[in-house]
Design a protein that fits this description.
InterPro entries: F-box-like_dom_sf. By secondary structure, the chain is α/β, with parallel strands linked by helices. The chain has helices spanning 27-73, 82-95, 113-121, 137-143, 180-190, 255-263, 303-310, 345-349, 388-392, 395-398, 419-428, 443-449, 488-505, and strands spanning 128-130, 149-152, 171-177, 200-204, 212-213, 223-227, 229-230, 241-245, 270-274, 289-291, 296-300, 313-315, 320-324, 350-355, 359-364, 377-382, 406-409, 434-437, 475-478, 512-516, 535-539, 545-547.
Length: 548
């Protein structure tokens, strides 16, 4: 076969003919070439599979999105009418002006295109403008369209919008806290007379600033609140809410101007006059000013100013009168003609009197013991100097004592009342059926309740027979449900037993004795009382135990 023999020659084995050492290529190189070929095929296969999976993922994502959209459309919130959604959004808007503002303040407008469309089409959602918020003020002015505007500022920062002048006629409410310069700038842009739609005006400048007097007419304002800001007082009329505080004498209205405002506002429902220092206390002779719709009247001033303000007023029977004055004399100086209520209703409407060391409360009939509800309070007064003795001397002048059926002696009230004054007080309150006593020094009280009132103030002599104070007293309660009276048993239980025994002998026995969280009081320690008292009620730490 010789030269005619043909055989396949691997080209990898072809060597350079000039090479002296012709050897086949190494095995590792052959393996490398084969691995590269296999890898190339595998990568092509992976790419194909990946593309197929991505396409399938896109198809499934689209299908899932469609399913999710259909599920969302079936949610109750998606079925709500636009009007209800708008009410919900209105609540969201109120959060923008709370103490804790949300981080994403307008996120609810970006939930979906439907919600956004409802938000943008509702002008009332954008009608409250925060002048100190540069990001939103101008945008809100545009989105509010023709809706009435309320402008506010949460802090005395610089104004951030100059576009307000274009919308003056839409102003309905101004509630701002600004520095004096910014306040002047704001009202310069508004003009000397507020628009007819303006019904709510609340102006405040920092207390460290000097009081500011604005040359502004407010004939249409119904809700007026001024803090260190004065306006043209003679333009105030038909007010429903009046609050004035922090004015210096040169800015404060005179007593006559204040009476003119009250007389021109017969529908007033709320009045707060705080730290007033009128330049003159002179008053004009006028008929009494009736404020029968007033629910709250709060005055903080010197006693002579309080007396001058109230001298010409007649309050309705539902009015709660609160006074804050440093009283150094009896209540006769404040009310020479009695409490300023129509037809003397205060005299017969007071069913309970609460005496505290620095305050006094006259409570309406039907109020529970230690009640602080505004609706149950007819009159209250607070004073920095101790007050209880001065009130004791004036009760008969202010009230019909025969209508008072409950007396409350708050913590420390008895510390400042002399024995004679206390005896005179208890002798006059002949209709009191319930006596509630908080933490106090009880020696004088329990001594008087035993009938020992022979001092000169009660008209007796050294040998006079015992005389019953509070002859209608049926319930005597010690401490308050919220208090804890330490060492009560050690200090006062023996005197309490003696008091109950003495009143039984005098023919005015106690029906019920109540102990609220009085330390040391138990069924065993009070066993002796069952001889003299019909019922002993013990309330230790909120639990109720009754002993007959």
């Amino acid at each position: 076969m010789g030269n005619s023999c043909q055989c396949a020659v691997n080209p990898l084995y072809i060597q350079d003919p000039n090479s002296r050492n012709a050897h086949p290529p190494p095995r590792n190189r052959i393996f490398s070439y084969q691995a590269q070929a296999l890898m190339s095929d595998r990568l092509s296969e992976i790419a194909y599979i990946r593309n197929m999976l991505l396409a399938e993922e896109m198809r499934l994502a689209a299908a899932l999105s469609s399913v999710r959209s259909k599920l969302n459309a079936l949610q109750p919130v998606s079925c709500l009418p636009s009007e209800i959604l708008e009410e919900i959004f209105d609540v969201c808007v109120s959060w923008l002006y709370g103490h804790h503002k949300p981080k994403h303040r307008l996120a609810w407008t970006q939930v979906c295109c439907s919600w956004r469309q409802i938000s943008l089409n509702s002008s009332r959602l954008w009608q409250r403008i925060d002048l100190c918020d540069s990001r939103f003020a101008d945008e809100f002015l545009v989105r509010s369209k023709e809706a009435p505007l309320s402008i506010v500022s949460a802090s005395p920062l610089k104004l951030t919008t100059d576009n307000l002048a274009l919308h003056i006629n839409r102003l309905r409410c101004i509630d701002v806290f600004l520095f004096s310069d910014d306040m002047v700038r704001l009202f310069t842009s508004i003009g000397p007379t507020l628009p007819t739609a303006m019904t709510h005006l609340s102006l405040k400048v920092p207390s460290k600033s000097s009081p500011l007097a604005l040359d502004v007419d407010i004939p249409f304002v119904r809700h007026l609140a001024l803090d260190c800001v004065a306006i043209k007082w003679h333009t105030c009329q038909n007010l429903v809410h009046l609050s004035v505080r922090g004015l210096s004498p040169e800015c404060c209205p005179s007593i006559t101007e204040l009476h003119d405002i009250l007389e021109a506002s017969p529908s007033l429902e709320f009045v707060r006059l705080e730290n007033l220092t009128p330049p003159s206390l002179a008053t004009e002779s006028r008929r009494p000013i009736s404020l029968i719709h007033l629910t709250d009247m709060i005055i903080s001033a010197q006693p002579n100013i309080v007396s001058a303000i109230l001298a010409s007023l007649l309050l309705g029977p539902s009015t709660r009168l609160q006074l804050y004055a440093s009283l150094s004399d009896s209540l006769h100086t404040l009310f020479p003609n009695g409490l300023p209520y129509l037809h003397g209703t205060a005299r017969s409407s007071t069913g309970a009197v609460r005496l505290s060391r620095h305050s006094a409360h006259f409570l309406r009939h039907g109020s529970p013991a230690w009640c602080d509800a505004a609706a149950k309070t007819l009159f209250s007064i607070s004073s920095a100097p101790p007050l209880s003795t001065r009130v004791c001397a004036s009760l008969a002048h202010l009230l019909d004592l025969s209508c008072v059926t409950r007396l409350e002696l708050n913590t420390g009230a008895l510390f400042d009342i002399p024995l004679g004054v206390l005896a005179a007080l208890l002798t006059g309150l002949r209709s009191v059926a319930t006596l509630c006593v908080a933490f106090n020094e009880l020696a004088d009280l329990l001594w008087i309740l035993q009938g020992h009132v022979q001092d000169a103030s009660c008209g007796g002599g050294p040998g006079a027979a015992p005389r019953v104070c509070l002859p209608c007293l049926r319930t005597l309660a010690f401490s308050k449900p919220s208090d804890l009276w330490y060492h009560f048993s050690d200090r006062w239980l023996e005197l309490t037993v003696a008091c109950a025994q003495a009143r039984r002998l005098l023919g005015a026995p106690l029906v019920t004795l109540e102990f609220y969280r009085c330390n040391g009081i138990s069924a065993e320690s009070t066993a002796r009382l069952k001889e003299f008292v019909g019922q002993v009620a013990i309330y230790p730490e909120g639990r109720h135990q009754t002993q007959f």
